[in-house]
Amino acid sequence: MAMLCYKVSGPDIVFEQFNGDLVVLNLGTGRYFGLNPSAASLWLALMAGATSEQLTSHGVDAGWVDVYVRQLVDQGLVVPVETDAVAVLDETLVVALAGSQVAPAIESYDDLSDLIIADPIHDVDQQAGWPNLPQAKKD
Amino acid sequence: MATRSSRIDTKGLPGFLGELFGFFDEAFARAGSEVVARIGGSVVSCRTDLPAYAETVRKALADVTPGTGGSCRIIVTSSGGLGLPDAPAWGESHYRERVVETALASGRYRVHYLDDIGFWQFYDRETDRGIQLMAAPCAVPVWDSGSPLRNFLHWHFSRRGLGLVHAGTLALDGAGLLLAGAGGSGKSGTVLAGVRHGLGTVGDDYVLAEMGHPPAAYPLFRTLKQDGRGFSRLGLDRVPGLSRELNWQGKHQFVLDEVSEAGPAPRIHLRALCLPEITHGPRTSFEPADAKSAFLSLVPSGITQMPGDRDGSFAFGARLARQLPAYHLRLGTDPAEIAGEIARFMGRIS
Asked: Within a 10 A sphere around the Cβ of B276, how many other Cβ atoms?
């Protein structure tokens, strides 16, 4: 029976790892996200093709997985894909998943999103010029 | 004779650019003013028929790092100049930079456009040639004088595995620090405090970084900026001949050579990535920071300001943040104390 795995929603989604943490950037919106180690492990497992069921079978709280995956989908970072395959996860990742004691957390930063996607024709403060948004847009 | 292209759109860009660059060599030969700068191992040659713009470029670009074989040629002109086609208008309702970037990503060209002033920058990555085509000689962005041709340098060096990073630098005996943080974090003030008290630098705002063991940084621009309060606090109001004019941000803008006899260093080795923070406390101190925090201070702001190859810039910045140890730099209030503590810190980590 086909289950759902998840892949990045498009080439605009890029990510990098830092000693257990992870940062994801959506180049299309300018919004970027900091993932704590639990969230980072889940992200890497999802990128390897793991389904929600597989994550739960490795000891991750099912409620955490559901909330986390929904957040990723709602933020436009991943999309669901049907699969019959069982993902083979790296042993280090399996250990990290089983050892997750803290709920996965995603911090969202959109301080720069207005600058990446602002339309310079219409969205620029007329006095200060690019990259300054008009006060109304900042508010 | 140059053809006229009045309007272009995303789909028509590659064809237009192929035609435009067909005029390049003749236009380059015709341009009467030239600035040559040795930057990051490349020789950057900018020619223009606009003497005032040539002076802007000459003043801003750092020319201190010997070439190792790379080269880049750039033409700057206004509509109808040097036999080039007129600066085109955008044929779609809005110029969506990210849409155009995505369309050109796998090809040879890079483009930047400011529709409100008719300012185009085109770059051919396969031949290392760039064209800046403006609606009028004065139609440049307000921030251009501090970092002219920056996008061309970004596109040129990204192909060579180097990257422009949005950071300041300070160094002692050829080794030093990257200083990264949002506007108002104290980067520029810290660079100036260091420079005014004997430390070296390869620049403030944007520098060219190269991965290695250790990573290195090269100067791009000689420009420094400081607000009025910092200008006084650092004693710059007592430097003879330093302009008091304010730039578009309301800041004093000048070049490194005006405030430091040493000028920019040709290269520094990087030992750490520091995140300055204004604390108003009495003493400057350093405290370890995590790589993710360092990355978030270093990379996102640079990505917004440099069009094209943003995913590459993201990855490059991540490599730097992973390799360099990171520290919070809690700034005191006395420029001399700040510089002294930074010098002692660099001695400890070297």
From this structure: 26
